[in-house]
Amino acid sequence: MSNPVFVALDTPDLRAAEALARSIAPHVGGLKLGLEFFAANGPAGVRFLGEVGLPIFLDLKLHDIPNTVGKAVAALAPLAPAILTVHAAGGRAMLEAARAAAPPACKVVAVTVLTSLDAADLAQAGVHGTPAAQVDRLADLTRAAGCDGIVCSGEEVGQVSARWPGGTFVVPGLRPAGSDVGDQKRVLTPADALQRGASVLVIGRPITGAPDPAEAARAIAASLKASAALPAGV
Ligand SMILES: O=C(O)c1cc(=O)[nH]c(=O)n1[C@@H]1O[C@H](COP(=O)(O)O)[C@@H](O)[C@H]1O
């Protein structure tokens, strides 16, 4: 099993991100660079961390009119990300524009319902029904637009991966048993998310905020190997 963990390097500090990336590199499969890192360090920072030698997941969650998103993705293409995020709620034409502008080897995945939201938050935004129903709707839209997969929580990944064979399922909001949930509302353990069908596990603070990040990443990788050896549900 290749390591499905992408560590979220959510810091504006380029040197701190590099030191962290190098220390945990043996225990993760890739680096996720998001808005906090990109706002501070831009494309040059992404290139710099690319020198660590791990695949880069560029998590900019693009959400705008199709023309703007297509041109933004084209501008990001030289960074050769392995994975790029957009928001599924941007609609079919925006998703199509993103897929068309991305390099063929880059997986374009669409965020469905943020893991920091629950049903009450969705209702406040005018979306009635469960997060799971909304994830299904947006997954169908993303698939119809030709994108590669979605971002959802561990609570939905089982149901949605069964509906979309061959899709890429990115799951954040992961917490090893006993770790602090923070601002996340729909959480699962990394091993459970993998067993339910996740393809990519996004893990930030449980690794980056640990007293020994390399040891935390190693322990998570070991928990995945151990659970993969067991039948589902055990
Ligand atoms: O697209 C994402 O990666 C993402 C989507 C989502 O619904 N929830 C979510 O937490 N994320 C990202 O996943 C990471 C989670 O970080 P931790 O909560 O520290 O593990 C952050 O970088 C978030 O930006």
TrEMBL record:
Domain spans labelled Orotidine 5'-phosphate decarboxylase: 4-220
Binding site for substrate: 10, 32, 59-68, 115, 175, 184, 204-205
Chain coiled-coil ranges: none
Keywords from the UniProt entry: Decarboxylase, Lyase, Pyrimidine biosynthesis
Gene3D superfamilies for this protein: Aldolase class I (3.20.20.70)
Pathway in which the depicted protein is active: Pyrimidine metabolism; UMP biosynthesis via de novo pathway; UMP from orotate: step 2/2
Highest taxon in the source lineage: Bacteria
Active site positions: K61
Cross-referenced CDD domains: OMP_decarboxylase_like (cd04725)
SUPFAM superfamilies: Ribulose-phoshate binding barrel
This enzyme's EC code(s): 4.1.1.23
Reactions catalysed: orotidine 5'-phosphate + H(+) = UMP + CO2
InterPro entries: Aldolase_TIM, OMPdecase, OMPdecase_AS, OMPdecase_bac, OMPdeCOase_dom, RibuloseP-bd_barrel
Catalytic EC class: lyase
Subunit annotation: Homodimer.
Function: Catalyzes the decarboxylation of orotidine 5'-monophosphate (OMP) to uridine 5'-monophosphate (UMP).
Record family assignment: Belongs to the OMP decarboxylase family. Type 1 subfamily.
Name by which UniProt lists this protein: Orotidine 5'-phosphate decarboxylase
Gene, per the UniProt record: pyrF
